[in-house]
Design a protein that fits this description.
Elements: H1 4-7, E1 10-15, H2 20-34, E2 39-45, E3 59-62, H3 85-97, H4 99-108, E4 113-117, H5 123-130, E5 134-137, H6 142-149, H7 168-171, E6 185-188, H8 192-206, E7 209-212, H9 216-220, H10 224-229, H11 238-243, E8 250-254, H12 263-276, E9 279-284, H13 289-305, E10 308-312, H14 317-321, E11 326-331, H15 335-344, E12 348-350, H16 357-367, E13 371-373, H17 392-403, H18 407-426, H19 432-452
Parallel strand pairs: 1-2, 1-4, 2-3, 4-5, 5-6, 6-7, 8-9, 8-11, 9-10, 11-12, 12-13
Helix pairs in contact: 6-8, 6-16, 12-13, 12-17
Keywords: Glycosyltransferase, Membrane, Transferase, Transmembrane, Transmembrane helix
Family: Belongs to the UDP-glycosyltransferase family.
Protein name: Glycosyltransferase
């Protein structure tokens, strides 16, 4: 017997965190849900962005960030590499002021399910009060979250980490919780062939439901306009430069949207790149006056030799990584970039800095063996330079192995290509992530039927 619920679309509300590295994957997951005709998607955000829902029918519900109430100028409402330290707490306060309004929106929009970032722990109680499931998006790998959960008794593989590589919230618990236990389940941007062992371990040790839906960037960004728009970047000559380079000859260097380095470290990176003998493309975020002068001189020099290309600010990373000229990737081990590198079939030089990045380095280097560590040894807060400076000799060794012609280098590249094939298979009909997505939607529909519908 057909019910009202059979005809009603499943209403799923998404709440991203105000940081680019968190916004991009959760919006991609929202677009993934919206690919299904029987799912109605709304994203709650503080600003409208034409790229947020490219190619998908997704409603954007905008809430005004209370900038003036917390002493911030208009437009300062996200966390990024240039956010001044004195504004960080004010943005956090502004987010807390929005809690009541967002909770009311969940009710007014008649959500059947909410999907929120892990940095909104209060949404677990909000969902419970409404009697609907809350799915939490967990940035990072299954390995990183499993290791954080059971650092001393991790089972599937033996991992070695120094105390300095462990995030500060594990060294000295600060009372913050991801509210995993209060959620119906969690979503990860990964796939079974990449992390199946860790996925099973995570489910066992946490006792929670979880779904791997990745690679979400590959799944929802199917054409060049999608890929170019992701990250708010413009084409400024990089493509022409790459087309002039032989296949697999260029090293791509990027440290994500939240990383910054002191001038001393920038000098070491620049010298290592210039002395490597390989062509390179470097995405630079620093905009300090002293750094600009040094880097501008460096840019002139490598441009004249046609060995290097600097992109200032944002880069269309998906398009760059899939270009045939790119042969390797230097990464801060942010999970978004690792997933994009895996999808592109690229070996990586790993340089973790903060958050869960030292954990993310482990599967790349020690388990999957598609990368080489640059040698970073000290975890630091995202908005801090830290004390460690990795020397050009160590950077150069990693680059030489990554881009070299020896047997070890060739084996890394071979394994990376195999994983890229597995990534593409995961999102095809019958693949692990495709099956997980269909199963998740069906489960959410069943919950709505059991909780809210009568025949």
């Amino acid at each position: 017997m057909e019910t009202v619920c059979d005809k009603k679309k499943l209403k799923v509300i998404f709440l991203p965190f105000l940081s680019t590295s968190h916004i991009i994957p959760i919006v991609d997951i929202a677009r993934l849900f919206a690919m299904h005709d029987d799912v109605d998607v709304t994203i709650i955000t503080n600003s409208t962005n034409r790229d947020s829902c490219r190619g998908r029918s997704i409603r954007i519900h905008t809430v005004k960030f209370p900038a003036s109430q917390v002493g911030l100028p208009d437009g300062v409402e996200t966390f990024n590499v240039s956010t001044p330290p004195d504004m960080i707490s004010k943005i956090g306060k502004g987010l807390s002021l929005l809690q009541g309004e967002i909770e009311q929106l969940f009710q007014d929009l008649k959500a059947d399910c909410i999907v929120t970032d892990m940095f909104y722990p209060w949404t677990a109680d909000a969902a419970a009060n409404l009697g609907i499931p809350r799915l939490m998006f967990l940035g990072g790998s299954y390995l990183s979250h499993s290791a954080q959960h059971s650092l001393k008794k991790y089972a599937p593989h033996h991992l070695e980490m120094t105390r300095l590589q462990v995030p500060d919230w594990l060294r000295e618990p600060n009372g913050y919780t991801y509210s995993k236990k209060k959620s119906y389940g969690s979503l990860f941007d990964t796939f079974y062939d990449l992390e199946g062992t860790y996925q099973e371990h995570y489910k066992t040790v946490t006792g929670t439901k979880t779904w791997s839906l990745g690679p979400v960037s590959l799944w929802v960004n199917q054409d060049a306009s999608d890929k170019a728009g992701r990250g708010y970047a413009k084409e400024e000559g990089w493509l022409k430069w790459l087309k002039s380079k032989p296949e697999k000859s260029v090293l791509y260097v990027s440290f994500g949207s939240m990383s910054k380095f002191p001038s001393s470290q920038l000098v070491e990176i620049a010298q290592a790149l210039e002395e490597s003998g390989h062509s390179f493309m470097w995405v630079v975020k620093n905009r300090d006056e002293g750094d600009d002068r040094f880097l501008e001189e460096f840019e002139k020099r490598v441009k004249a030799s046609n060995k290097g290309y600097l992109i200032w600010g944002w880069a269309p990373q998906l398009l760059i990584l899939e270009n045939s000229a790119i042969g390797g990737l230097v990464t801060h081990c942010g999970w978004n970039t690792i997933m994009e590198g895996v999808t592109a079939g690229l070996p990586m030089a790993t340089w973790p800095l903060f958050a869960e990045q030292f954990f993310n380095e482990k599967p790349v280097v020690d388990v999957l063996k598609i990368g080489v560590a640059v040698g970073a040894k000290e975890w630091r807060p995202w908005n801090d330079f830290g004390k460690e400076v990795v020397k050009k000799e160590d950077i150069g060794k990693a680059i030489a192995l990554l881009m070299g012609s020896g047997e070890e280098s060739a084996e890394m590249r071979r394994k990376a290509v195999v994983l890229a094939t597995a990534a593409k298979t995961a999102i095809q009909v019958g693949g692990s992530s495709h099956t997980n997505m269909l199963g998740l939607i069906q489960e959410l529909k069943s919950l709505r039927f059991e909780g809210n519908c009568l025949p």
